[in-house]
Task: structure prediction
Amino acid sequence: TRQWRGVIEEYRDRLPVGPDTEVVTLREGGTPLVPAQVLSERTGCEVHLKVEGANPTGSFKDRGMTMAITRAKEEGAQAVICASTGNTSASAAAYAGRAGMVCAVLVPKGKIALGKMGQALVHGAKILQVDGNFDDCLTLARGLADKYPVSLVNSVNPVRIEGQKTAAFEVVDMLGDAPDLHVLPVGNAGNITAYWRGYQEYAADGSSSRRPRMWGFQASGSAPIVRGEPVKDPQTIATAIRIGNPASWEFAERARDESGGRIDEVTDRQILSAYRLLASREGVFVEPASAASVAGLLKSAELGLVDPGQRIVCTVTGNGLKDPDWAVAGAPQPVVVPVDADVAAERLGLA
Ligand code: F0G
Result:
């Protein structure tokens, strides 16, 4: 058996790299597709989780970042910049550090999870907290990339989407064909765009016999695509998708319409409930934003919108360890016991 080589080496002929391109990789991708027992039971379907938190920096962003940093290095860039709700900055910092490049990140002040901030810091990024939201950060990042010698690695950079489409390839390669339905959280809308591109490419050359319907879910307080207009002051506990004016808005609508899919919203309460269910019953610890896909599936099933017997894949986009506050919040403090088996047994309810 050989080691997984990373998404560029594994799918080289489907990605915009040349034969001599020197690849910057952490061997991202090749993530588990985990059968979801409880979700399957609740929906009457065969549900799988694409666990993207298993990527090297703990989110799906690594798939796009290996492409973006590989390309930036090939073009001789000395520095890269991104706006981020946290995961893009963690990924950019890691890959840029590996490539010997300076990485600048712009994050919304006070609104990124501590784990992600820690990653950007330890990987050596230069961080600015912007007095504004993600959308303001992206405007600023674009302005800087236009005027100064720094390469933009947000998903408005088309090679990011190219790298991220490999997740759809992996799903088809593992299942033997495309699923009936693919469910994703939606923030800046790059990922739903990327999956749809991947599924379309595979179907076009006969690597799959069909394309799934694409369902995307935004957080209710940050649901511009559902509302049909930008949200000025987006709110949600799922900080990763706290975005009011997604850059890939039109592509997301195209994925929805061309696939016969939907983009809907889930409340923070529904997100947290799915987050707890995933951790406690499926054994998969994700960050809150990632649970939006599962929350959306469960909400849809309750509304009678999920026909039984389908094969469904939910992408869970980021690792729960990035934002553990929500795991601890509201949970009882573990009690303290002496080194005494009888007391411990009593406290555990075993005695
Ligand atoms: N889930 C997680 C964990 C994310 O970090 C993001 C986006 C999304 C879902 C939404 O994906 O933007 O492609 O629709 N995070 C970006 C960031 C915005 O800066 O890390 P999308």
